[in-house]
């Protein structure tokens, strides 16, 4: 089953890399400086789209894979138990904060044992693989935290990633922001490296069953 998961992800990444590479070649083509700048601006949001799109697909595929293992919550990393709690709390339960707090007290007292003995079911993946339409450092870390995946902090530079997303937002809103050739190449190279980094992180995680509590 891991092989099928890996093939789907590899295929997903391959088509994204192909389009990005083709756009990079176009940007370097024979045209005026103003035309190149316009094309760099137009390409920047597409680079971001492939970044966000791949992370969402990766997270959703990983959740589906884990669900198909038919494991109980207590067999999984403790972060997954928050999903069980959320599913209960949203299902017509009191929204008063004091009562919600008491529910959490009940959980830590062991009153949710029956629920956590049930098989893992995440409901809607969008709830948990949430890029917030601005996949900066914080949303990325929230996604990785759910899976208990550790990453190389130096490889995911929060300052650069946040600036990259802010630049994309400015361009998408029509701001006349100039993108230099160096900035474009830097963004292109960094995103490709990040895509490969996250693919490798999830491959190792799934293959080594990092989602199980015994692997904490």
Highlighted features:
216 residues, mainly alpha
Fraction of residues in β-strands:
under 5%
Question: What is the end-to-end distance?
Answer: 22 Å
- Runs in which pLDDT lies below 50 for 5 or more consecutive residues are none
What's the helical proportion of residues? 55-70%
* Individual helix count: 9
Order of helices and strands: HHHHHHHHH
Main sheet specs: none
Give the beta-strand count.
0
CA-atom Rg in angstroms: 21 Å
User: What is the averaged pLDDT score?
Assistant: 84
Give the overall form: elongated
Supply the helix-strand structural class: mainly alpha
What's the short version?
With 216 residues, this protein is mostly helical. The chain has nine helices and no strands.
